[in-house]
Amino acid sequence: MTEVLAAIADPRLTKLASDFATLAHRHQDSPPHANNGGPWTTWLVLGGRGAGKTRLGAEWVRAAALGTSPYAQRRSRSIALVGESEHDVREVMIEGVSGLLRISPRGERPLWMPSRRRLEWPNGAVAQAFSAEDPESLRGPQFDAAWCDELAKWRNAEDAFDMLQFGLRLGRRPRQLITTTPRPIALVKRLIADPRTAVTRAATHANAAHLSPAFLTEIVERYGGTQLGRQEILGEIIEDRPDALWSRAVIEACRVRQAPPLQRIVIGIDPPASSRQGADACGIVAAGRAEDGTIYVLEDATAAGLAPAAWAMRAIALYRRLQADTLVAEVNQGGEMVRAVIREVDPAVPLKTVHATRGKWVRAEPVAAMYAQGKVKHVDPPLASLEDQMCDFGADGLSSGRSPDRLDALVWAVAELTRPRAEPRIRSLGGPIFPGSVITW
Question: Is-above-0.90 flag for pTM?
Fold first, then answer.
């Protein structure tokens, strides 16, 4: 519709084509009231991928800066823009295809000063950019409006959000818009239950007219009916799977800001059976053990669609960067190929190969028990994709039916760090001789 209106050589229709509020989807309409029936102070928009959340956020901020209805009744002079990282604020919220600079007509476009992380409108309204990675940067400034994007992904969600609330102290009724793909974190749940919050929900299909038909077809075929699909496509908050080995609460209780000095670090690898498009990813997870025996999960470098040499280079690069002690790779599928590929990238890298003789659930159970006992910690930033697999891993595997590649790599790493430190059996892999062993687990 907007393209048709814009193509008609009539100034009135051209103006209408840029009137977002008139042509907005229902989920992009300003809510009439909060949960308690009164005026809202927080508008929480939970939507699937591509549902139009970013465009709504940019249009809401633009209306706040100009004082235009229906999104604003009066002009806001000081606005906070808070994203997952400084890069996300700049590339998505400000300069992105649905960001503030793109959606603003030329005569109303604010001046963007990247070095100061500041937008200035001709009427004097100002928006400042903040990263949730640095909650302390929100200590001091004050605002009468704020837009928080992808809050459910923020690494320091609680701290950053709290600091923002202390800064929302200008004007008669400071307001904030939160646009995010939902994840069942405690902060999102509290906001949904808050009587001063207005909640809007939207699936990806609500914005289908502005999305590629091929994209919609592919994601529905691949993820329709799965927990990931319900979260990322339908915009639902997915609670813990009843038969899952891990829960969100257990993982949150195991989260730490940083690891202590580690005595040993290993890189767990779960190689894929194929590198073709749509095949399983290569699970690559780094973990280390402290002096007291506690395991710290450091990083998830899992990657999909890589040729064997590429995932081997990725794993070895992580090994070098973390100054790890060894790689631990499962060789149930293509054992000799796995050894050969890693050897070609670095003949000297220490490698232990493991062969699974028991099912994934049985192998994962003792690791899950260690989490429940507080013996395994996750080091910030959150390992969202890995943690999603953990909380969706039941007796019959993942709800999607796909391989738990990240989880498998985690299990191999933790198992290696907790097994007795007997000297491994050294075996020749042909050609140059380098450390290696075969472990069944």
Answer: no
